[in-house]
């Protein structure tokens, strides 16, 4: 019984992140529908506030609540940023997309740097496993395990 409680307790940060992410997306949709198209507040919301929240805020929260807590690879942050960017691009108007592009460029640089660092780290782990064993399954198991620790 204690193990199941401990397992449930360890999932609390991940559940908190998922609930917050769903609430942030739902709030964004509700706010966009509530503000008339003619008002400048809608343009500000769609072009500045949403990109900041969904492309920087949610990924930062995901990093601190899930990746650091479970000691996962930072490469798992890339899909969170990409999903936020896709959502923002769907709601942003073409004439107010400059802030989205700036924030997107920063997010892309962060994603590329994370990808390069993780690719090099996974490559080193693969080469180390290849030198240690003749079994190709071991070569691939070591880097994948290091990536997801599962």
Protein described:
The protein starts with a helix and ends with a helix. The longest helix has 35 residues, at 98-132. Helix 5 packs antiparallel against helix 6 (136-148). It has one domain (11-148). It has helices at 2-10, 12-34, 40-70, 78-91, 98-132, 136-148. It has 150 residues and is mostly helical. It is elongated and about 65 Å long.
Blueprint of the fold:
Layout: H1 2-10, H2 12-34, H3 40-70, H4 78-91, H5 98-132, H6 136-148
Return the average pLDDT rounded to an integer. Answer: 79
- Could you give the count of β-strands? 0
Which sequence of SSEs, written as H and E, runs from N to C? Answer: HHHHHH
Distance between the termini: 22 Å
Structural class: mainly alpha
Tally the structural domains: 1
Tally of individual helices: 6
Radius of gyration: 20 Å
Proportion of strand residues: under 5%
Query: Main β-sheet: number of strands, strand sense, barrel status?
Result: none
Which ranges are low-confidence, i.e. pLDDT below 50, for 5 or more consecutive residues? none
Global outline:
elongated
Helix content: over 70%
Which characteristics define this entry?
150 residues; mainly alpha; 83% helix; 0% strand
Question: Concise description?
Answer:
With 150 residues, this protein is mainly α. It is built from six helices and no strands.
